[in-house]
Amino acid sequence: MGVAEAAPTPSLAARTRGLRKLYRTTVAVDHVDLDVPEGAVLGMLGPNGSGKTTTIRMLLGLTTPTAGEIELFGAPMPDAAASVLPQVGALVEGPGFHPFLSGRENLLRCAAAEPLLRSAEIPTAVDQALERVGLAAAANRRYRGYSLGMKQRMGLAAALLVPRRFVVLDEPTNGLDPAGTREVRSVIADLHAAGTTVLVSSHLLSEVEATCTHVAVLHQGSVVAQGELTDLLESGNAGLLVSTPSVESAVNALRDNKIPARATPDGLLVDLTSTTAPEVVATLVRADVPVYEVHRQRTGLEDLFAQLTEAS
């Protein structure tokens, strides 16, 4: 019998090891080991002051780390910044543009500095970016007259002037109304469908749960959890939900085998602390209890986030 092959390790768009940043005696980031798989939408969560923005700035070469290693697409940063960063679009700590120029004029200047854009392509790229973020109608208005939400859209447009392999968005829905938030969610979904890796820093847990495939939770400058969102949500609660028409018989059968269980409005909830899902099903089948459906109980991202930050 042959030896089973190990699952291939996913390639990473970004990787940090032992990342640390000190501001005099203040520790902003403390030994962060972060993996951002290629093609993922990773939500970076954490309370204010947890080190999210500092970590992002170090990833992009905007801040020099005190210690640690950073790689983008396998290349060391900041040494490879000139070759790697043109493949990265970023909106960090709010956009900054010339207040007396229009939105289109500002983006034309941004596009002129894009090494991946030929001069003939610039007007079309600017128009497409403005349309993509919903600013086409306001393109000729001065930037100083834009609302906070429109300024956020401008920053997003600048990040998306050319196709990117990696897009980093620091609080992209800041100042947006519900319609604008839905548009940003749609842009992230389009990027993901195109195979682009997206890193989103956000305090809106509902938005992260709706748009992200992976999550990294930061607290007090350290990563306290990271991985696929579905796995983290399932690991946050050791419970199994069982759908059966014979709830009372199921509870009795499990309790006879010293497996805690109770009836809930959603079905039978079984505690998996001292057993496994297959053992629960086998116990019910031996007791002639019909089992219609079985799945792990999922905790909400808000509850998981509270558990992780309070425990740490």
TrEMBL record:
> Example GO molecular function term?
ATP hydrolysis activity
The ABC transporter domain sits at: 14-245
InterPro entries listed in its UniProt record: AAA+_ATPase, ABC_transporter-like_ATP-bd, ABC_transporter-like_CS, P-loop_NTPase
Keyword annotations: ATP-binding, Nucleotide-binding, Transport
Cross-referenced Pfam families: ABC_tran
The UniProt similarity line reads: Belongs to the ABC transporter superfamily.
Q: What is this protein called?
A: ABC-2 type transport system ATP-binding protein
High-level lineage: Bacteria, Bacillati, Actinomycetota, Actinomycetes, Pseudonocardiales
